Structures
1.
Amino acid sequence: ALLDGHRAVGQRGKSSLPHARERTLIAVKPDGVQRRLIGQIIQRFEQRGFKLVGMKMLQVSEDLLSQHYSELRAKPFYPSLLYYMTSGPVVVMVWEGHNVVQTSRTMVGTTNPTEAQPGTVRGDFSTHVSRNVVHASDSLEGAKREIQLWFQGQELLNWDCCDQKSISE
Ligand code: ADP
């Protein structure tokens, strides 16, 4: 039932619409919150044309983090990563839109800020890989997994953005 509005548009012959409903998980990490960058980061995603469908501020548990970063458990920096990510609150968001996973990675910049292009979040706001301000899911499957991990279904809102048709078709 939640998809009815979109199906109605789809019936007009556009097949790319489900793609416009792609979702990704973005988090402002504790250093980003401490440095008062939440607003600037949200602004970048809004102005790019993505739709915010979920957002909350929380103190992350080690349990959630160990699931989120399960692939990194064997890395030497893993203990310090857990310490960093639990050092203060994070703001976690779900953004929706055409190719949002890949576009967000481009907007966020490379993992190591030394190589991050100016104009990206990391390229504008960070210098060190261990304090890189923001998280963005790195694949469609990763995004699905992370969204399920961080959010309950009812915390994500299906809502119509009045400018959606001007932004993607
Ligand atoms: P990304 O966050 O760009 O997807 P990874 O999944 O490889 O990158 O790593 C997750 C996070 O772990 C990074 O964002 C960063 O905070 C931290 N990290 C990665 N590599 C290092 C490193 N060599 N030293 C310290 N922290 C690191």
2.
Amino acid sequence: WTPASDSDFTDIRYERTATPAGGIAKITIDRPEVRNAFRPQTLVEVSHALELAREDAEVGVIILTGEGPHAFCSGGDQNVRGDTGYIPEGETVGRFHVTDLQIQMRRLPKPVVAMVAGYAIGGGHVLHLCCDLTIAADNARFGQTGPRVGSWDGGFGASLLRDLVGTKKAKEFWLLCRQYDAAQALDMGLVNTVVPLERLEEETIGWCAEMLALSPFALRLVKSSFHAHEDGYAGIQQLAHDANLLFYASDEAKEGREAYKAKRRPDFTQFPRRA
Ligand code: 2NE
């Protein structure tokens, strides 16, 4: 892995590696002293790194992970939680930056893979839910803690979880705040695979390499197709705009554009009305 940004990140690392089929970006939440809990700055940096990965034409897949073997992410940093949200350093009014980040992850037209060692808890659990795939180490533990600390995530944290594990089980997560080990997570469809901790990164890179060998635009459409239903109008919009990106390359669409620029009536009679 090589550092891949000039940005002055304090809470994350942004790195890249090249494979014969394309590049993989890795975003690591680097706050192991608090089990990789996120503060506002952390989320601002993850968001920036996701944007860098999106704009980088070499990058085809993104890994989101946490530093060290003990935690992927333990959710919002309770030390900076105020009465109005999570308070950015030097400010007084709180925010929920994670709301926008979750949507950004789902909108990103490249697969995002959660690489989970140790705890994926609270808002950290929701981050893995928002990833397209999850590769877990055998020491991974999953759970929601919201009601224990006076919080909850009734958005993606409830709906995506329900889609994955069913309503009763999702409610169990939230109403009892239990933790589940990697084998249980695999059994309930919460993760894609479980591997020994020492093989976690190798396995994750293997999955990324498999995706890199596939059609990037087809992968983009696969992702937006799933979200078209789940994300309502916003999901449909993304899938529709993805289709539009392809339509723009057609002679039919080009005729509309060229006619407009030439100030003439477009001639669409040359194109078939497909059955
Ligand atoms: C993650 C977990 C289960 C780990 O347990 P363990 O025993 O392995 O570690 P320990 O000793 O609890 O944690 C190590 C250090 O990390 C801090 C701890 O306070 C401890 O600090 P020291 O005693 O060494 O000084 N730490 C861990 N998680 C933290 C956190 N989230 N904020 C601040 N400090 C944290 C265990 O640590 C745990 O249960 N952590 C709390 C999980 C949690 O409740 N997260 C917040 C959920 S709410 C949320 O994320 C959220 C939301 O609901 C809506 C919007 C946005 C966010």
3.
Amino acid sequence: RELYVFEQVNSTNDLAKKKAAEGASHGTVVVADQQLSGRGRLGRPWASPPGTGLWFSVVLRPPLKPFLAPQLIFVSAVAVCHAIRDYTGLPVTIKWPNDILFSGKKVCGILTELSAEIDIINYVVIGIGINVNQEMADFPPELQEKAISLAVAGNTKYNRVGLLKAILKELEKEYEIYLTEGFPAVLKHWRSLTSTLGQEVMVSSTDETFTGVAEDINGEGCLLVRTEDGNVRSVMVGDVSL
Ligand code: BTN
């Protein structure tokens, strides 16, 4: 596969999109030790200091209609969660739609970006950011409460290249399962790894906030939340806090 390794980039997602637009093949990986303007979901910044984290992006060229692209969010979350569990032995879980948590704190975020025409996907970039070897003091004050590294969680440092290999292998595996067995097989894995279902959650979606119990996800990957009045609402885009 094509592999690009950098000491410093603005954002591996931006670079991966550029490579993809120039024709980079399915499976291309862009990884950097440091990102100067790492990006998170919903326009947020993603702190990406050097020497400690795993910041990388994977180019996929799936044979799918564009409306199915969000399903790849679940494919990647399952793969990353499995790989971290196998590699570290830590009982990390998935928070809908695709954060990876250790005891309620975020160790990993995933940012998926799509380039498509009416009926075909040009490429999808899966951007994965993992807090691997940071000490608690390395996190900016506003993240101290919400974030944690694998090293703090496991009380040991981890090899970033070894973890990257484990994730790429798992991503290939889950992607293959998705293409051959379909989305239900992926959802089955996702359900077994999540800490969101059955929980009381506060949902912040694009234009409103409400609370309820996260009951399930549907075949499209929407979170189904039962509110106090007994209605079930489906959430496509948004954030949940537990
Ligand atoms: C989130 O939780 O909001 C998603 C965070 C995604 C961060 C990764 S780090 C590698 C890739 N490059 C970026 O600029 N963002 C993603």
4.
Amino acid sequence: MPPPPGAEGPWTEIEEASMPTTRPKSLTAPALRGRKVRDGHDPLVMVTAYDAPGARMVAEAGVDLILVGDSLAMVVLGYDDTLQVTTDDIAHHTAAVSRGLASLDPEVGRPFVVGDLPWMSYHTSTDDAVRNAATLIRAGAQSVKLEGGRKRLPVIEAIVDAEIPVMGHLGLTPQSMHAMGGFRVQGKEHGAALELVADAKALQAAGCFAIVLEGVPDRVAQMVTASVDVPTIGIGAGGDCDGQVLVFHDVLGIEDRVAPKFVRRYAEVRSVAVEALEAFAADVRGGTFPNDDESYHLDLDVAETLHLYA
Ligand code: KIV
């Protein structure tokens, strides 16, 4: 039986002895837990992915973590908010990501896969939460992420107790958009900033191996980052977190709806794609696609038996 990815102890010796290639080591939850920039580590890079080709691109770019985020709802499924996706939706896309990574060249490092627990998958009971987390693990995730501070501690502890690594998510938590009164930057007041620090410490104590900080002032994110020993991964949280995450469709310029100020686009894939599709449509309409080289041909003798002459 091959050793599980990231296994330590005797497994590692067996794996290293029998490995023919110099396959790059992939990250594990225990290894991620210590990845603080203040301890000399490089910042972590996380990008969302929702399907096999996307996952392969993210891996080939050398990204550390893939989040199969509930942003799936908006950037892939066309909804206006993240509240519309279910555990089965996230599992379906996690499985696609996992198949994409499995088909990679062995020399490409595998990003660590985080499955996002959607709204109402961990709000009803700890049993439901553990069951839904297990669904994402069975689909191919190596950990799960969930939103919220101290009120989520029983759920986090139960999932960690089931041997499933948990990533926390504090600040602007989109699953609470109605309760928060919209997508608003969090932690702007003195008391709210201190609450965020207390939440982060509590999440760490409950066993979270990393914490996403979304939509908080940079100085508050810096304070939270300094107050915990697990890495913080920021989105709209300034440059002092232990890592950064962006949505795949935002990085590549595929999503052209509202772009928050923290998004930096590294390409304009949408406009390139629309131009390519326009060119295809024009070629079909103009009769120039397909050409002879793009068509299959009958052998001449068969063509003759069918009375087909050039
Ligand atoms: O679903 C998602 O994409 C996320 C990130 C924005 C952190 O939760």
